[in-house]
Amino acid sequence: MSNHRVAICGVGQTERYKTKLTCSLAGLVREAALNALADAGCEWSDIDALIIGKAPDMFEGVVMPEAYLAEALGGVNKPVIRVHTAGSVGGSTAIVAANHIKSGLFKRVLTVAFEKQSESNAHWALSPSMPFRPHFNSGAGGMFAPVIREYMRRSGAPEDVGCQVAVKDRLHAIKNPHAHLHLPDIDIDTVKNSPMLWEPTRFLESCPSSDGACAMVLAAESHADTSTHKPAWVHAMAMRSEPSFYPWREEVNPEASRACAKDLYAQAGITQPRKQLDMAEVYVPFSWFEPIWLESLGFAESGQGWRLTLEGATSRDQGGDIPWNCSGGVLSSNPIGASGMIRFAEAALQVRGMADQRQVEGAKRALGHAYGGHSQFFAMWIVGATKP
Amino acid sequence: MTVPDNSLLEADFELGFTYTRSPGIIIGKFLAALKQQKIYGIRANDGSVLFPPTEYDPRTAESLDDFVPLSDRGRLLYWTWIDQPRDHHQMSQSFAFAMIQLDGADVPFLHRMLADSPEHLSSGMAVKVQWAEERRGAITDIHGFVSATGG
Predict the structure, then answer these.
(1) Most CB within 10 Å of its CB: which of A43, A68, A82, A98?
(2) Mutual orientation of helices A255-268 and A289-296 as an angle, nearest 10°?
């Protein structure tokens, strides 16, 4: 396979990731796509292929949405491909799109990921009753809560680390006009006093149900200069998968997560992610996944991730050295299928210097991360301000 | 080994879930008009009239909003006769699945053609809408099409 450089020339997001009752699914994806085209200085006719992604069809009950979205996305008479890897799909969709450019076969690819949670109840759609399988209606929160408990037991982390993450990401979100939740008055007590949903996870330690789409225009080096803004460059990308259950499975720190990060860092020449990266957008749908991923992704030693959170290292507002989720993260907006791509796109905006009020000053290299399923699909990329 | 109980080799199950649909402003207007027995197509960028309306132009991908009132008359293009409808067809009598092009529209669409027998059908014949008795804002507010000349 050829190894052509991949530029991110355009990023587009839904104006705000909140419920949109007057908007069709097609209208939702189109808004993000048009914004990405405008950022990239492109027209529909400049696009060679369309790579779209969303979470499982059960989540909003539109079966094979890719079959009817071509005209809304200028995809008629072009290749249209849908990617499908549960909650990590926004990230893996971006990687599939980037591989189209990397192969040298395509010059400009539009990639869009989306979810319209107002049309469904994705939490319970995760847990349909099936023969020969337990039906606990645990949802994502119930599935991950025991894993969080086990992390707390192993690490000895103080009980309120999750609450700290919940506050930190919501304060970040205030500076992101796209964020679904804007909770300027949130503090530790507000989070602690919110209902306990799946012990130890409280209501305000959980992500919201959001509507939205995120899009990017990716281009070959020869076609990367149409925008008035400078592009971001893909420095590394990796995907890994594993089954939900297998004998030696390590749920708190999944093998696929560690292998994905190792591959990613090797490509980018990174040995000390906390020092060599300027910020990260990491998929944290429940608060405790910040310290869990801090360790799995090598930003902290095993058992020490929670210290970075408590020290403010991951807080942009507190001037932390490795801000995580300056956009407010998944805890502030979760249009599930789009959430991974939002992480990838926000990382790109940061190294382009286009993150406005949420900008990490001078950010040159950033991580975008997504995971999905039962902590079993992982997609990650590192983007930079300069060519790799 | 032997399987102790053959009933454990298969099981039926129903997968059901409740959703909400948001058709959006354009399709929503089209559906609301059907409830009032009014039929609208939409004008594409090249001037052609699409029925049913689409939100975006299939050729240019631009947004469309130029609604064009259409009559309840059209032409039968081609069809397949369903002589013995089954439960899922939701029809108690023989009918045809047919491509019908409304007068003033430039594209045909799939709907039901109602007739006593396939001998009454011919390509190009004039047809007209038969409205459903109860209308709720859906394409099935048009129950089907019948011969416009009573044949």
Answers:
(1) A98
(2) 60
Contact between chains at A30 and B56 (C-beta distance less than 8 A): yes
Chain B residues close to A74, C-beta within 8 Å: 61
Distance from CA of B19 to the nearest CA of A (A): 5
CB A71 within 8 A of CB A64: no
> Which domains are present in chain A?
6-122+210-223 (3.40.47.10)
Return per-residue pLDDT of chain A as tens, 388 residues: 468 999 999 999 999 999 888 889 999 999 999 999 999 999 999 999 999 999 888 888 888 888 889 999 999 999 999 999 989 999 999 999 999 999 999 999 999 999 999 888 777 777 778 887 777 777 888 889 999 999 999 999 999 999 999 999 999 999 999 999 999 999 999 999 999 999 999 999 999 999 999 999 999 999 998 888 999 999 999 999 999 888 889 999 999 999 999 999 999 999 999 999 999 999 999 999 999 999 999 999 999 999 999 999 999 999 999 999 999 999 999 999 999 999 999 999 999 999 999 999 999 999 999 999 989 999 999 999 999 9
Measure B59 CA to nearest chain A CA, in Å.
7
Under an 8 A CB cutoff, do B24 and A22 touch?
Answer: yes
**Site from B22, B46, B55 to mutate, A interface, most A CB atoms within 10 angstroms:** B22
CB B24 within 8 A of CB A24: yes
This prediction has a pTM of: 0.93
Residues of A in contact with B26 (CB under 8 A): 24
Cβ distance of B19 and A73 shorter than 8 Å: no
Q: Using CA atoms, how far apart are residues B128 and B90, in angstroms rounded to an integer?
A: 21
**Long-range pairs, A190-197, Cβ under 8 A, ≥24:** A191/A163, A191/A166, A191/A167, A192/A160, A192/A163, A197/A141
A46, two tokens: 């400049």
